[in-house]
Amino acid sequence: MASLALIPQSRFVFQKPNLSIVSSPNVSSSVGIIPKDSPCSKTRFLKLPGKVTRNVVVSAEKPWERYPGPGGETKGKGKGFVEEMRFVAMKLHTREQAAEGEMEAKAPEEQRVEKWEPTLDGYLKFLVDSKLVYDTLEEIIEEAAFPSYGEFRNSGLERSEKLAMDLEWFRQKGYAVGEPSAPGVTYAHYLKQLSDHDPQAFICHFYNVYFANSAGGRIISNKITREILDNKELEFYKYDADLSQLLQTMRDKLNKVAENWSRDDKNRCLEETQKSFKFYRNILRLILS
Ligand code: HEM
């Protein structure tokens, strides 16, 4: 058994039944995983230097060094803080949602999207609530209560106008488009409040919501387009420029903004990921209502 070294001030970024994500200002990129049954998790010791053993995967190394891409390439190298946000987000997916997911699917919306039984009414509610969330995010960025928010203006990822076009299309087809419901209203309210006093935590939501739509959103879009929209492709999933380029520009901006953050700021941002998933899951659930 290799020796264990105590890393002062290490803290849990999040915990779930079998794993804890730990971070520490004393570790370079400082995100590690400790199975809960490991003695390390109880004592908050980390194993150094970062090595993968049968039960313990904790390290001083950077996440992308431990998680090479499918072809073994060091995916993410040089991506900075965004790679940490992605790392935490991917673990919070269920195994059914994404190959890198580690959570167990419990609720229907956490199951494999192919197995979903969406309804048109439910999907419309999802679009209405999504629009409120994107309206709110885009207003916050526009008003820029903190100068860093201004960096994210005119990214080409904005969804508010696209959603307005989709909802108008439904209206013209004779569908009743209702008012936002509790999941969207609650999330929008939370985002507004958070953005006024905690930019790091807010930016976690900003990252997750926009990147979720570009990844999982496309899987959902395929299912909905085929099964309930008679192959009508919605604007929500279309971008006016090359999406991978837009995402990369956004990653670069996020990394640049995060360069000025302390380790505590970064940890607070990472810790917020769970909330982002919880709020967004409640909105996704509308599709199946
Ligand atoms: C039905 C639900 C969902 C499905 C099927 C899904 C699926 C996926 C998949 C397959 C990826 C990997 C994309 C890739 O690397 O090529 C991904 C990435 C991601 N997802 Fe999800 N996801 C879902 C929900 C969510 C939620 C609720 C959030 C957070 C609010 C989220 C945030 C993200 C983020 C931040 C990424 C990283 C994107 C990137 O690196 O470009 N996802 N998702």
UniProtKB/TrEMBL annotation:
InterPro entries from the UniProt entry: Haem_Oase, Haem_Oase-like, Haem_Oase-like_multi-hlx, Haem_Oase_decyc_pln
Location in or out of the cell: Plastid, Chloroplast
Domain of life (superkingdom): Eukaryota
Primary localization class, coarse: plastid
Enzyme class: oxidoreductase
SUPFAM superfamilies: Heme oxygenase-like (SSF48613)
The keyword NADP is assigned to this record: no
Keyword Transport: no
Pfam families: Heme_oxygenase
EC number(s) reported in the record: 1.14.14.18
Alphabetically ordered keywords of this record: Chloroplast, Heme, Iron, Metal-binding, Oxidoreductase, Photosynthesis, Plastid, Transit peptide
Gene3D superfamilies named in the record: Heme oxygenase-like
Family: Belongs to the heme oxygenase family.
Name of this protein: heme oxygenase (biliverdin-producing)
Organism of derivation: Hibiscus sabdariffa (roselle)
